[in-house]
Amino acid sequence: MSHLIDTNLTVDHLLMGNDAIARGALEAGVKVVAGYPGTPSSEIIEGLANVANDMNMYVEWSVNEKVAMEVAAAASFAKLRSMCTMKQNGVNVASDFLLHLSASGVRGGMVIVPCDDPGALSSINEGESRYFARLVEIPLLEPGDFQEAKDMTKWAFELSEELRQVVMLRSVTRLSHASGTVRYDPLPQSEVNAEFVYQGFLLDQMEGIVITAPVGFRHTQQQEKIKKAREIFENSPFNTYTGPEKPDLLIITSSACTLYSREAIDVLKLEDRVGLLKLGTTWPLPPNLLKKHLAMADNILIVEEVLPFLEENVKVLAAEMAHEIGVKTFYGKNDASLPMVGELNPDLVINAIAKIMGIDYQAKSENYAAKAQATVISGAPQRDLTFCPGCPHRASFWSIHNALELDGRKGFVCGDIGCYTMAILPTGFQSLKTCHSMGSGSGLASGFGKLGQFGFDQPILAVCGDSTFFHSAIPALVNARHHNSNFTMVLLDNSGTAMTGFQPHPGLEINALGQEVPGLDIAEICRAMGARVEIRDPFELEETRKILNDLIEDTQEGLKVLILSQKCALSPERKAAKKYEMSIDESLCIGENCGCNRVCTRIFRCPGLTWDKTKGVTRLDEVLCIGCGVCADICPAKAITRKEAA
Q: Structurally, what CATH architecture does the domain formed by 392-574 represent?
């Protein structure tokens, strides 16, 4: 039995933050959950999918975040409790529908859970989802620890139904992926029936048709909901204060920064001088609660990640209340007490407090920092970001690079978001020359492909993965085909959403619940658009290079698609099996000599190959090598050989 549906209420359960959110949703009686995989949010849906049958739920990995929100909204309109999850970049994708949903409102409780990534630990940016809550005028909640992650998620559904409005619950990496103890509440036993009622009066949110117009009425109604949320937040148990009645410094914080702030106060032994106001309801801010605590101190430090969202909103309230609470001195992001970018930690908060309070304290000594840096430099080997051993992307970009070099017309590759984003680096032979959001590689290529009338004659390639194809590349390809844009799409099909944990997508014959479903054929979709489509195995280097040059040199204008199909090296299907047994004949290895110059370890850089400095030859790491056989084709001396695995 999954720990998420454990009925033992008398013990503390050790849960990851994402599991705590999932448990809170279960305790709230959620029935429909949809999302798109993205670190650090993915485990929420994975955990719920594992218990969907036990809890009579429907859970899906949707084609993208906008569709996920629409699927969840449909359930809400049918009076079921629903949730959709995504990482911070997904809120941008879903924002078109979210803007309308916030105006129409919801029926059954609906919660959206974006998990932000301060520091961009697993992202290409550290975008903020909190500003969307203010932009579209919906309540924003931020749990400060693991128990709150569970309890606040459960309450978010109740709040949503009380307001008849979608509620945003924001997590961050250090909360989503860290673990802590959580005490459970009972799981609901009652069943519900879905029904979409639409025969009522036009403006009746619960029984009329569901639309965002008329704008004036809906917007007024929306702002009334925000006003009511503000009143509810005044007495929320998720807003807490600890510290003296008249602190020398008041810290206002939220989310995982609560943990950093508590630790900083404890380390500095300032419990009797520093007050900590932890806010769980961060939009709209409860003005009376803020007035009470702002009046307590003259100096205010606001600790948050990443941008000064809370700081700006608190300052607005403080300015409006200045005649009652007096003029305050604020510290935080804007005065550089805390950095404006990156993830925070206790040391950064300690340094900020110490500086404000005039305390002579170093979070770590200069000697310690110097020794730590020296250890890193001298004791640890350099490890560049790289594709895994046997990754089909390394083989794909090897062929792409060579094809463009042979073509000689300064061709380039428009990149996309996925493992293959690393092709900006030497591991992908620095092939990518643009990289933005999911699907934008194809969109940019569509634009470049129409510049011929201005003398543009460089070959254009775009790369994207199979999951990204369904997520957002299809519209770009439709645009390219319709406008007869001249470029080649190279689709890196590794049979899953590999970067985030092999979640299924519409190209596979299985869904999030493990059920068999129809898989959509990418090649047939592209052919239906009228594109020329070729399919190759990227491990067949020469065949791949030849077809790439053929496509690049094809004088017929328009869209071409090359599907390079090979399962990810870490996929369950390939992980335990080797296609080839690999070996190296050291007597043939010419290493650093002319004619090779360590092409396998210096250029190709598969981690399964290592350089023996003492002998001056390449060695095979039998633990890391997965037996793809590609390195045998790139060795100019034929020192690397392969044979079929037994």
A: 3-Layer(aba) Sandwich (3.40)
